Amino acid sequence: MKWASGLNLIAGVWLLLSPWALNLGGAAVGNSVVFGIIAVVIAWCSLVVAGENRAPAWVNLVVGIWIVISPWALGMTSAAAVWNSVIVGVWIVVFALTRIGGRTRMPAV
Protein backbone atom coordinates (compact mmCIF):
# COMPACT_ATOMS: atom_id res chain seq x y z
CA MET A 1 0.00 0.00 0.00
CA LYS A 2 2.92 2.33 -0.59
CA TRP A 3 0.79 4.13 -3.18
CA ALA A 4 -1.13 5.60 -0.22
CA SER A 5 2.10 7.10 1.09
CA GLY A 6 2.77 8.52 -2.37
CA LEU A 7 -0.62 10.22 -2.34
CA ASN A 8 0.11 11.62 1.12
CA LEU A 9 3.38 12.97 -0.25
CA ILE A 10 1.39 14.85 -2.89
CA ALA A 11 -1.02 16.14 -0.23
CA GLY A 12 1.91 17.37 1.86
CA VAL A 13 3.42 19.21 -1.10
CA TRP A 14 0.05 20.83 -1.82
CA LEU A 15 -0.34 21.83 1.84
CA LEU A 16 3.14 23.36 1.76
CA LEU A 17 2.38 25.40 -1.38
CA SER A 18 -1.28 26.19 -0.69
CA PRO A 19 -0.79 29.47 1.22
CA TRP A 20 0.56 31.06 -1.96
CA ALA A 21 -1.75 29.22 -4.37
CA LEU A 22 -4.82 30.22 -2.35
CA ASN A 23 -3.49 33.58 -1.12
CA LEU A 24 -3.90 32.58 2.54
CA GLY A 25 -2.73 34.69 5.44
CA GLY A 26 -2.31 34.62 9.20
CA ALA A 27 -2.05 31.35 11.09
CA ALA A 28 -2.96 29.38 7.97
CA VAL A 29 0.40 30.16 6.38
CA GLY A 30 2.59 28.93 9.23
CA ASN A 31 0.40 25.92 9.93
CA SER A 32 0.29 24.88 6.27
CA VAL A 33 4.02 25.31 5.75
CA VAL A 34 5.10 23.52 8.94
CA PHE A 35 2.65 20.65 8.67
CA GLY A 36 3.12 20.42 4.91
CA ILE A 37 6.83 19.85 5.48
CA ILE A 38 6.10 17.33 8.24
CA ALA A 39 3.60 15.46 6.03
CA VAL A 40 6.10 15.35 3.15
CA VAL A 41 8.92 14.05 5.36
CA ILE A 42 6.74 11.42 7.02
CA ALA A 43 5.22 10.27 3.72
CA TRP A 44 8.72 10.04 2.23
CA CYS A 45 9.87 7.99 5.22
CA SER A 46 6.87 5.72 4.77
CA LEU A 47 7.86 5.19 1.14
CA VAL A 48 11.44 4.23 1.90
CA VAL A 49 11.04 2.05 5.02
CA ALA A 50 10.50 -1.68 4.89
CA GLY A 51 7.00 -2.69 3.82
CA GLU A 52 5.88 -3.99 7.20
CA ASN A 53 6.91 -0.85 9.11
CA ARG A 54 3.83 1.30 9.48
CA ALA A 55 5.18 3.70 12.13
CA PRO A 56 5.48 6.64 9.69
CA ALA A 57 1.86 6.15 8.66
CA TRP A 58 0.78 6.36 12.31
CA VAL A 59 2.61 9.67 12.62
CA ASN A 60 0.97 10.91 9.41
CA LEU A 61 -2.40 9.93 10.89
CA VAL A 62 -1.79 12.24 13.85
CA VAL A 63 -0.60 15.00 11.50
CA GLY A 64 -3.75 14.61 9.38
CA ILE A 65 -6.00 14.82 12.43
CA TRP A 66 -4.25 18.02 13.51
CA ILE A 67 -4.64 19.50 10.03
CA VAL A 68 -8.39 18.81 10.14
CA ILE A 69 -8.92 20.46 13.53
CA SER A 70 -6.33 23.23 13.17
CA PRO A 71 -8.62 25.86 11.59
CA TRP A 72 -10.74 25.94 14.74
CA ALA A 73 -7.86 25.47 17.16
CA LEU A 74 -5.98 28.37 15.56
CA GLY A 75 -9.03 30.57 14.93
CA MET A 76 -8.76 30.68 11.14
CA THR A 77 -11.54 32.77 9.60
CA SER A 78 -10.81 32.39 5.89
CA ALA A 79 -13.15 29.91 4.22
CA ALA A 80 -10.34 28.92 1.83
CA ALA A 81 -8.02 28.16 4.75
CA VAL A 82 -10.67 26.14 6.57
CA TRP A 83 -11.72 24.09 3.55
CA ASN A 84 -8.13 23.53 2.45
CA SER A 85 -7.16 22.25 5.90
CA VAL A 86 -10.20 20.02 6.23
CA ILE A 87 -9.91 18.49 2.75
CA VAL A 88 -6.15 17.93 2.91
CA GLY A 89 -6.35 16.68 6.50
CA VAL A 90 -9.06 14.15 5.65
CA TRP A 91 -7.05 13.08 2.59
CA ILE A 92 -3.98 12.46 4.78
CA VAL A 93 -6.01 10.62 7.44
CA VAL A 94 -7.70 8.33 4.89
CA PHE A 95 -4.47 7.41 3.14
CA ALA A 96 -2.57 7.01 6.42
CA LEU A 97 -5.27 4.58 7.55
CA THR A 98 -5.02 2.81 4.19
CA ARG A 99 -1.27 2.44 4.66
CA ILE A 100 -1.68 1.29 8.27
CA GLY A 101 -4.29 -1.35 7.41
CA GLY A 102 -2.97 -2.44 4.03
CA ARG A 103 -1.32 -5.72 3.24
CA THR A 104 2.08 -5.67 1.68
CA ARG A 105 1.94 -9.31 0.59
CA MET A 106 -0.71 -11.55 -0.86
CA PRO A 107 -2.11 -14.04 1.65
CA ALA A 108 -1.02 -17.67 1.26
CA VAL A 109 -3.59 -19.94 -0.30
Explain briefly what this protein structure is.
This protein has 109 residues and is mainly alpha-helical.
Structure notes:
The protein is an all-alpha fold and 109 residues long. The protein has one domain. Helices cover 77% and strands 0% of the residues. The longest helix is centred in the C-terminal third of the chain and has 23 residues. The two termini are 20 Å apart.
Topology, pairings included?
Blueprint: H1 2-21, H2 27-48, H3 55-73, H4 79-101
Helix pairs in contact: 1-2, 1-4, 2-3, 3-4
Give the helices and strands as they follow along the chain: HHHH
What is the average per-residue confidence, as pLDDT, rounded to a whole number? 87
Major beta sheet summary = none
Q: Termini separation (Å)?
A: 20 Å
Helix count, per DSSP? 4
Low-confidence stretches: none
- What is the total number of structural domains? 1
Instruction: State the shape.
Output: elongated
Rg (C-alpha, Å): 14 Å
How many E-type strands?
0
- By secondary-structure content and strand pairing, the structural class works out as mainly alpha
The residue fraction in helices comes out at: over 70%
- Percent strand equals under 5%
